[in-house]
Structure formats: structure tokens, C-alpha cells
Amino acid sequence: MRLLWTAFSLLLTLGCAAGSAGPGPDAESSLEAHGESRGEMGTEGGGDTGTDGDGGSKALDGTGDGTGGEMGLDPVTFQVVTFNTGTSSVVAHDLDEKEGEGDGYTSVQAEWIDQYCGNSLAWKPAEEALREYLSEHKPEIVAFQEMMYDPWCEGAPEPPPGLGLVCEGYEPGDPLTIERLLGEGYQLASTEGQEDNWVGIRLDFGRFEGCPEEGLCEGGAKGLGLPGECNEKPRVSSIEVVLVGGERFVLVNVHTSAGMTEQDMECRAMQLDQVFKDQGDGKPAAWGGVNLVLGDFNTDPFMFAGADPSADRLSEYVGPGKPFQFISSDEEGGPPTHVTGFRIDHVVSDVITGSCQVAGESEGVPPVIESSFLDHRPLLCTVQLP
Q1: How far is the CA of 125 from the CAs of 129, 131, 215, 271, in angstroms?
Q2: Which residues pair with 292 in a beta bridge?
Q3: Which of 100, 206, 230, 352 is deepest in the core (most CB within 10 A)?
């Protein structure tokens, strides 16, 4: 129990230092009706095979049991990645540096990125490692939180040379980090009002409804902020996916408020209500007949139950007998997605099924990069749309 609360406190500290949307201060339908509309769906299914990016099949060592709905005879199988790509300035980045055994990422870079880049993916070695990871797996759907937004460099001083900072050598009009990561084969949309949260779809798989055929779809994923003490910018956004075969579903990118103060947890619970109940316009962010919800929920409903009201709120919507089921692990002892050892990044759906692995945590799965830079771990899921 002491270990649990020590890690719980560390998550509070990391939540206060990271999770902001950009540089500056905190720049970070009813369930009953939904349940009736999906009431005929079963709870069996899942599977542990995915696509290799070229339509072939490959094995994926899953962490979930895929209990998200009854499989059709010819499901559409595809891969999904969700990843909070940010960092934290409070992690011991200087560990082993004096002995020459460190990773090259130190408190010097951490403090600069914290001040000018919102603790985002602003270190070139981490960007390159993630680019290679994505190139290897070629996921059809991606969702990112705390993604570097390169125009922030325009408001920052020239960074110290030789530290591998993304802003070094930046010129206005340069391709964005998200473009460098994924190349030309994806359509990319950011959350309206939150330029560090992005979703992407492979063009040979489908497109985002309402986005232009060419170029970035900045602000294309729509959401609403919360009034009062909570962040008035959207922490939840959704966009409709249209597959090449005509199938449709709603993709919801989640990046709830971090921290463990009473206010943090209350805001996070209200943001989860936005996902599953009412985002403020009379309908949930997950408004489709089929919904895929993923991202950084900043709470562990398995370890924080009874201690974090937002964890309990999530369990009201997702789990056995609920309208939504976990695609990511809901098993005791499942792989963590955060440096604290907790599972705070999740993938859930009301119809889509599948299983996930966590880079650097699932058995036999290497990390994206051996570095203290990243405090989250990416989820790679192979899923089926009935």
C-alpha cells in the first residue's frame, strides 16, 4: 500500500509538471439511449491478429481480451496507436550522465522544453525513434497527445546548439512534427483549440469527414471546453471516420486533466462525462453508432478505484455490463502505460473489438526509445470493426 501511494503521489507531481497544451500556464446523449441502440450487440469476440500495413495478417501479443462486441463474419481489421508523446521536467533526467552512461537527455533540455514547448515531443532523438516505430507498424489510425506544434518555436529564443531540440534551426513554414512523423500517406487533424492533440488516418484506409482532401485539417476534430475552474479549451474531441469501403465510426481523442487534487479529479470526471454522456451540446463526444475512444485518460480505474472519483466515473461507462468495453488491458497485472506503473492510457469501444500491446512493457516488446524523455508508453492495438 505504501508503494501504491508513493506512485500515486508521483503521478500528482508529474500531472502538475506535464500535460499542458503548449507553452504557458495550463496551455494543456445519455448512456441509457446509447445502451438501447447497441443492446443487441453481444460481448464476445476479440482476436490477436492484425494487419501488417499492406493488408496481410500478423500476430499481436495482446493485453486485452477484446470483449467489445460480437464479431461479424467479415470484420475490417486494422491497427491503432495512441500515445502521449510528451515529457516531464521532474523526472531524473541526469541519471548516469556523469558516468557517460546516460541517454543524452538532461535537465537542461527538459527545462527548455518545459518553458517553451509545453513538455511536448521537442527532442529530435525521441522524434526520430517514434518515426521509426510508426514506419515499422504503419497503423491505420493514430491519436497523439502532447505533440510538438512547431510554430511555438517562433515565440521562443534560439535554443542552445547541439542539444537536439526541435526548435534549433526552425523556419516558419517548415513541416510540422506530426507531418515528419507520418509522411504523406496520412490525413491529419488537430483538436480545435488544442494544437498539441492530433489524430491521423492512412489514406489507403479512409478519410476524416469534413476535412479537405489535401493539406492539414487543423481544428478538424471538434470538442467543447468546460467553464469555471476546469480548462476552457477542449480536452476531448471527436471526428467521423469514413473508410474506403463506406463504413463509418466516430474517433474520440481523449486528454483529460492531469493531477490528483480534488479540483483535478472533479474536472477529469466531468471531461469523462463529456466523452460518454454530454459534451455540452446535448450529445456525447462518442456520438456515433460505432465509436472508438482512445488517449490519455490520466486515471487508472483499476488501481485508483475508490480514491479518484474520475476513476470511478470511468468505470460507470466502461467495463463488464456497460455500454463500452476495454480493448486495452483490463486484467489484473496488465502492462502499465506510464512511468509510475499505472494504466492511465486506454482504448475502449462500444462495438469495435481487439487487443493491445504496450511498447517497453508487454512481454517481448521493445520500447520506442531507451530514454528518460518519455513518461508514457504507446499502445498499439489490432482491432476489428464488425
Answers
A1: 6, 10, 26, 33
A2: 251, 349
A3: 352
Return the amino acid letter for 34.
Answer: H
Contact 210/154 with Cβ under 8 angstroms? no
Helix (H, G, I), strand (E, B) or coil at 297: coil
Backbone phi and psi for residue 308, each to the nearest 5 degrees, phi listed first? -125, 110
Beta bridge partners of 201: 141, 187
- Pairwise CA distance, residues 60 & 271, whole Å: 31
Question: Quick one: how far is CA 353 from the chain centroid?
Answer: 18
pLDDT in tens, 240-259: 999 999 999 999 999 999 99
**CB under 8 A, 24+ apart: contacts of 88-97:** 88/14, 88/17, 88/18, 88/119, 88/375, 89/17, 89/18, 89/113, 89/114, 89/119, 90/13, 90/14, 90/17, 91/14, 91/339, 91/372, 91/375, 92/372, 93/372, 93/373, 95/372
Give domain limits for the chain.
2-385
pLDDT tens figures, 72-128:
458 999 999 999 999 998 888 987 777 777 899 999 999 999 999 999 999 999 999
Which DSSP symbol is given to 99? Answer: T
Query: Among residues 41, 51, 224, which one has the least CA distance to residue 139?
Result: 51
- Model pTM? 0.85
Cα distance between residue 102 and residue 371, in whole Å: 8
Instruction: For Cα atoms 126, 128, 130, give the angle at the middle one, nearest 5 degrees.
Output: 70
User: Quick one: fold of 2-385?
Assistant: Deoxyribonuclease I; Chain A (3.60.10)
Amino acid at 69: G
